[in-house]
Amino acid sequence: MPNSNTTPIKEQNSVRTTKWAKPEGKWSGQKKYPHGQYVKLTVTFLKNKQYQLVESNTVSQCWTRTYFGSYKRDENQLFFTPQKIIVRTFATKADMKNGNSSAQEQISQEQFHKQFGNQQISKLKLEQQQIKIEHDHEKVILHSKD
Questions:
Q1: Pair 19, 5: CB distance under 8 Å
Q2: How many whole angstroms from its chain centre is CA 63?
Q3: pLDDT tens-digit profile of 44-65?
Q4: How far apart are CA 123 and CA 113, in angstroms?
Q5: Between the CA of residue 143 and those of 21, 24, 29, 40, 51, what are the distances in Å?
Q6: What's the DSSP call for residue 67?
Q7: Burial of 127 per CB tally in 10 Å (0-12, 13-18, 19+)
Q8: What is the DSSP letter of 91?
Q9: What digits encode the pLDDT tens for the residues 53-102?
Q10: Which residue from 12, 14, 20, 27 could staple onto 126, CB 3.0 to 4.6 Å apart?
Q11: What predicted TM-score, i.e. pTM, was given to this entire model?
Q12: Contact criterion met (CB below 8 Å) for 41 and 142
């Protein structure tokens, strides 16, 4: 069972308790596309409101982006702001699975918009048993891997 926080919600003359998924450990999910292609997102929550987000993409090309940064929390929402990104490209899905990259590049925060067209900020919504993430035009449901 995923980790959860308990937050009271006030209603008319009563208090109802809502459990939200707790931002701890590792969470993962994927969005499938035709022909066996996919975008997979894996989030690891680190200490001191730091995170690592790995985006694996096999749609048209095979690549991964590993984001490192910090997050802010507002009730049941988190906002990821990366400080650096490591991009790896692969010739095939098999190479990607085996970690045999054909190129690797580290991109600084100042270059995000130039490289990707935006600042790569992710928005997450904590729900009862899962986390919904909106990242780079993808919407994916994450489930706890712990």
A1: yes
A2: 15
A3: 999 999 999 999 999 989 999 9
A4: 17
A5: 9, 12, 6, 12, 16
A6: E
A7: middle
A8: S
A9: 999 999 989 999 999 999 999 999 999 999 999 999 999 999 999 999 99
A10: 20
A11: 0.84
A12: yes
Q: Which tokens go with 11? A: 């209603």
Q: Take residue 45 and report the two structure tokens written for it.
A: 């929550």
Q: Which residue has the tokens 């925060």?
A: 109
What is the Cα gyration radius of the chain?
Answer: 17
Tokens of 16: 């109802």
Residue 59 tokens read as: 């749609």
Q: What angle do CA 141, 82, 115 make, to 5 degrees?
A: 100
Q: Which helix (H) or strand (E) holds 115?
A: helix 112-116
Amino acid at 57: N
Beta bridge partners of 88: 64, 104
Residue identified by tokens 């970690």 is 99
